[in-house]
Amino acid sequence: MAMTMAVSLMVMLCAFTVVVGEPSLSESDKILKLPGQPPVGFQQFSGYVTLDSKRKRALFYYFVEAEVDPVSKPLVLWLNGGPGCSSLGVGAFSENGPFRPNGQGLVRNEYSWNTEANMLYLETPVGVGFSYDSSNSSGYEVVTDAITARDNLVFLHKWFLKFPQYQQRDLFITGESYAGHYIPQLAELMVQFNKNKKLFNLKGIALGNPVLEYATDLNSRAEYFWSHGLISDSTYKLFTSACNYSRYVSEYYRDSVSPICSKVYSQVSRETSRFVDKYDVTLDVCIPSVLSQSKIISPQQVTERVDVCVEDETVNYLNRRDVRRALHARLVGVRKWEVCSNILDYELLNIEIPTINIVGSLLKEGIRVLVYSGDQDSVIPLMGSRALVHRLATEMGLETTVPYRVWFEGQQVGGWTQVYGNIFSFATVRGASHEAPFSQPERSLVLFRSFLKGNPLPESF
């Protein structure tokens, strides 16, 4: 299927030829200054890339050049998951971008990833954040993984028309959660294209707390709950025998929850409590927004969200008219910008499509892969990710090149890591949530720096 899509898209994209050295088309997207922004020495850009001018479909991006010597730094595409959550609001303004909203303005994030790379944040798929499809007045059509991968590929190719100086740059793709579907599928299309015409200089992908194999990832939640004291012994037994989590989610998405699964999950929910953030079991909830929080962390909503106290700041900032004007953004078909889209109609059963096998095909092409886990996340727990990485490495015959050990950030243990064949890595980020750069920014930056350079994580301080 990927090959068929790649061939058909190749015909379309060949019409768009990037000529390195031609005048940049990006000047109209340059951000002069964001409202309340502290002084910086790097350039910022944001705006739209039109995917289909006939149907008026466009994806919104935010791009920040590296703080120092951007010409020598790689290009990194960041994708948040959900499906349906914003890379602008979550990734850029809550996790690893240069600023975070604070009151009426912005404050610097000293652990921004643009200290190491040129960072490109994409609001995808169409219908997320400021991205839009103005041809659908009656509502958005169902979006699938395949459509998202295709659109992201078209976006990136057309983005190079605006920024031709980045076409030959080393390219990495990073992201988290449902981006465990977005990123491998996009990378697979890139590899297929490159077999016919070298378009993308893809060097590696990094996947944070990713959905890679539905049953393994989701069912590790029971062990995580039990091992962290969130559920009782008897409930753990029910949650692993009578109705596991992957079965419950599958029935829930098909609107056919069985009585036994309903009973088991009600018991799990009661014991874990709605006042514990499942995306970080050690994080206190935001009491002033407890009603909103209780909806966000409801286990019936298998989507990626952030702590509402941080979310409120971001929502308020990005819904200011002066901010939208500075970003060259507009609202199309919605009344306000949302962290996670409430108009996107995503084919949620796509979660059952495994992508760990695509990761294997990328490794065979020589593309480095890092899978990392914030170890306080119970939504996509580290146990599932670690098991999937080890299984794939074994199937591929990759020898352990860095045995399981601690790694350091400063004088503290930053987490644990293991490397296979000097190309496939697993790492935990100690004390980190589902959104690791949000809760452990300094440790996540150390992880990111090592990933870009292809170096093992520091084993001493």
Secondary structure layout:
Layout: H1 2-13, E1 44-52, E2 57-64, E3 75-79, H2 87-96, E4 99-102, E5 105-108, E6 118-123, E7 132-133, E8 142-143, H3 145-162, E9 171-176, H4 179-194, E10 202-208, H5 214-227, H6 233-241, H7 245-253, H8 259-272, H9 290-296, H10 308-318, H11 321-327, E11 345-346, H12 356-364, E12 368-374, H13 382-396, E13 400-409, E14 412-420, E15 424-429, H14 436-439, H15 441-453
Parallel strand pairs: 3-6, 3-9, 8-11, 9-10, 10-12, 12-15
Antiparallel strand pairs: 1-2, 2-6, 2-7, 4-5, 13-14, 14-15
InterPro entries: AB_hydrolase_fold, Peptidase_S10, Ser_caboxypep_his_AS, Ser_caboxypep_ser_AS
Signal peptide: 1-21
Organism: Lactuca sativa
Tags for this model:
461 residues; alpha/beta; Rossmann fold; eleven-stranded mixed β-sheet; 15 strands; 36% helix; globular
How would you characterize this protein structure?
There is one protein chain. The protein is an alpha/beta fold and 461 residues long. The protein folds into two domains: 2-213 and 352-453, Rossmann fold, CATH 3.40.50; 214-305 and 343-350, no CATH class. The protein has helices spanning 2-13, 87-96, 145-162, 179-194, 214-227, 233-241, 245-253, 259-272, 290-296, 308-318, 321-327, 356-364, 382-396, 436-439, 441-453; strands at residues 44-52, 57-64, 75-79, 99-102, 105-108, 118-123, 132-133, 142-143, 171-176, 202-208, 345-346, 368-374, 400-409, 412-420, 424-429. Strands 1, 2, 3, 6, 7, 9, 10, 12, 13, 14 and 15 form an eleven-stranded mixed β-sheet that branches. A two-stranded antiparallel sheet has the order 4-5. The chain has a two-stranded parallel sheet with strand order 8-11. Strand 13 (400-409) and strand 14 form a beta hairpin. The radius of gyration is 21 Å and the shape is globular. Pfam families: Peptidase_S10. This is Carboxypeptidase.
